[in-house]
Amino acid sequence: MSDRARITRRGLFRGIGTAGLLAGCKPSERPPTTTEDGEQPPPAGSAGALGPGPSPLEFTLNGQRQVAEVAPHVTLLAALREQLRVTGPKVVCDRGACGACTVLVDGVARNSCMMLAHDVDGAAVTTVEGLSQGGKLSVLQEAFIRHDALQCGFCTSGMLMSCQALLGRTQLEREDVEAAIAGNLCRCGTYPNVVAAVLDAAKGSA
Amino acid sequence: MPDDSKVTLKVGFAEQLRDIEVQLPAGEPKPWDARAELKVVGKPHPRVEAPLKVSGAAKYTHDIVPQGALWAAVLRCPHACALVESIDVAPAKSQPGVAAALALVKPGERMIFAGQDVAAVAAKTAEQAEAALQAIAVQYKPEAFVIDTAAAMQDGAPLVHRGKVEERSTEGDEPGAGGSAGQRGNVRTSPSMKKGDAHKGLRMAKVSHEATYTTQVHTHSALETHSIVVQWDGPKQATLWCSTQGIFSVRDEFAEIFELKPTDVHVHTEFLGGGFGAKFGASAPGSRMGFIAGELARQAGAPVRLLLDRKEEHLCTGNRPDSRQQVKLGAGANGQLTAIHVVAHGTAGIGTGAGVGRNAFGVYSRCPNILVESHDVFTHAGPATAMRAPGHPQGAFALELALDELAKKLKRDPLDLRLAHDEHPVRRHQFELGRKQFGWDEGKKRAAALRDKQARVRRGFGVAGSIWGDFGRGKAVVATVSVMRDGSVEVKNGLQDIGGGITTVVAQVVAEVLQRPIEAVRVRLGDSELGPSVGSGGSVTTASVTPAVRAAAEAVKTQLTALAAKQLGRKPEEITWSEGQARAGSKSIAWAELCKKIEGEAIVATGTRPETYGAYPVKFMGGNSYQIAGVQFAEVSVDTWTGVVTVERVLAIHDCGKVMNPLTARSQVQGGVILGTSYALTEQRIMDRVRGVMLNPNLETYKIAGARDVPRAIDVVFTPVDTGANNTGAIGIGEPATIPTAAAIACAVHDALGVAVRDLPLTPDRVLAALGVVPARGAS
């Protein structure tokens, strides 16, 4: 009896073809085709397809233009961590259940493990590394420290990004913060301090 | 060296203070007692390493990528029990990117849980490694297995182990809590805890209560999975990065595996993403990670990263065992307990350690007859390992809920019943404090009124106690403090900060002694070359480390005092320190000036901690250390239509000796309460009885509490105690903080409903079943 007859997410992506996936995603922003010799032609009705090898990708990462060659099946999280060595976003569940990999994509908090790197082509991505300006911590980061909203720190990057996406709203209530971090798991139990920190930061930044 | 000296210490708690004499070993600074006036220690201070954690700059083992590092993946057994008939890893070696492949089992070997190591590969990328595993050909012959704790106890159940099982304990385990008193079938009996004659006590009882309570398997689920990165620096030298609670346990195990000198193994753990008891040694409890990464790196001639995924983390890195506890309580006509008898069975999977802690035996010690019998039941599942207060939350749950059920029969207030049997003066003080602060008496009346009205949403109040010991270790830590010529201060120790905040506390202790700002103290931890230290387990860290750090800082200060005396032309005993200046009469010398006079680079001193020398006011059973007290009160609301339990409030009153940093200590207690709430309400490992595999090895169906699942309010109160245990007065808090939570919540649910839900987690179906509105599902 043979082992490991299982379906992985990446395997599934490979199976149905990245081109198919991308065709279903963001047609207007699809990058130009870079198929190698002998690769299959782009599917009918689409402007092009990627893969299976690395394809060029351009986006803004923490305010800097970023150009990379990334294979189409690679998640944004994997591209950030393993290729670009931006390790603030963490791998905890790798399937959208914990929020440790949260980044902002055009200002919206997203699980970077649930996106393909090529999904952010042309977009602005902010990771926790991009929160401070010129080495100065942001109001939110300072509030996290003051309220001890972190213990081991492994959920902190994702927590901060979910909370950052929330800031700027007026009249922030406890429930708003709890809803914003409902998808961010913390095993040390920092939630009450995170809520206090965000409410405090919201006051400070208002 | 001066001889041992006797000093008088003011010890105790609240209003109950007294002087005791203790014998201090040579060179030991006079302990900070109730008279000590401290400026930095005991004050809230944000974590000194927090800027790194909020900016993504903190590097965890997951983030370490040595030059040319390969990615390792492990093939795991899909069967709960199977014989390996053949295994061929050769096809994996020719897969793209693969640099090494390794069989971890031999034909004829029996696999005994789903998730066990079978083979491993190292490849350039994670995907290549995963893909290569698929090329490994393994033939298994599945065999009969047993997953259920109850089924495994039956005669004729498939045997998990064919021989006698040796215990594997770590620094996460409670000292003195192990041992075996025999093994039969899948049942291994632990030595029982016994006082008086419980059987006789039960016969004498006028009122008795007997019921069975069950708890679930709980996985640690630290956010950073078990991970190790190995780089060989030569045939006999290696550098490791490991997500571990015990740097030296990693070093020593790795050295043993590869027959190296421990000093030739260099281990780094600058940051780790939680541990909760599961991260000791180079291996995980159910996976030989140290060997796998080390051997793959050796064969490939390149560094190897082995980072488990979430599924593996659930399957093979330990868990809190389940329990079935048959509790019998007896009371006399006066309502005093005549007997406590607990018979506990639990499964630690293929491992050991399913005891139920000291709660039943140690908390209500005015009961004259107590017998606690524990049994490990082997099942074909991943091994358990120490998890935050091993045994205690399950033991507290069964005992405290049973006490509440007895109190109901006795028509006695549950808090009164506890006070009548608890001898620990601090815990009694905490119970009384909580009664007032929590609004216990009024709350109970409100709960009763809602119950009488048969209201849809009920309220309930519960309380439970905690017991743990001050296991601070002597002679285990060597800390180094240096003051440089430029006036900077550095403290070094090979300790890891698991998230409890020890980095900050270490800085505070040095800042206190040397009268420097905390920011001026550089703390270097997380490296085995920075001096011996303890593992972060058993709530020993602060108690073990801070006294050694203080001793080193005091030794440096003595040298600085001598230097100041020389500069000021006075005798060292004439020098006093204030605000970082050395003074003698009208003369003084500022810190920076003084440091410039240091001959050579720096003044450097090391410090160690002697064995515990005081344990006031109560000793932990069978030892010379203090018994740590704690109580928690919980208020719940229960929707009797949906069965949903919401924890409204928890009041956690704890003692952790002298509180070093109220900010981080409070966070740690809060975290214990949240972990306990999650255990009480939602978390459980679900096994497929037919296939023998875990059905929810992830974080969406293995449900750990999120921000909206935690108590609406958590109030933390410390009742500081000066125990005279060591020179800083620190004792631990990590474990005690989570012991009574689930018990207090279960008691509150009992209060709300008038019937007990005797199985954890307290899921809606169980609440409805207890109310009799839906049938009970099969007991776990």
UniProtKB/TrEMBL annotation, chain A:
Name used for this protein in its record: (2Fe-2S)-binding protein
Ranges in coiled-coil conformation: none
Organism of provenance: Nannocystis pusilla
Top-level taxon in the UniProt lineage: Bacteria
Matches recorded under InterPro entries: 2Fe-2S-bd, 2Fe-2S-bd_dom_sf, 2Fe-2S_ferredoxin-like_sf, 2Fe-2S_ferredoxin-type, 2Fe2S_fd_BS, Beta-grasp_dom_sf, Diverse_Oxidoreductases
Region Disordered, residue ranges: 21-56
Gene3D superfamilies: 3.10.20.30, [2Fe-2S]-binding domain
Keywords, ordered alphabetically: 2Fe-2S, Iron, Iron-sulfur, Metal-binding, Oxidoreductase
CDD domains: fer2 (cd00207)
Residues in 2Fe-2S ferredoxin-type domain copies: 55-131
Automatic annotation (TrEMBL), chain B:
Keyword Oxidoreductase among record annotations: yes
Domain of life assignment: Bacteria
Sequence segments annotated as region (Disordered): 163-198
Key words, A-Z: Molybdenum, Oxidoreductase
The Aldehyde oxidase/xanthine dehydrogenase a/b hammerhead domain, residue ranges: 55-144
The keyword Kinase is annotated on this UniProt entry: no
Protein's recorded name: Xanthine dehydrogenase family protein molybdopterin-binding subunit
Organism annotation: Nannocystis pusilla
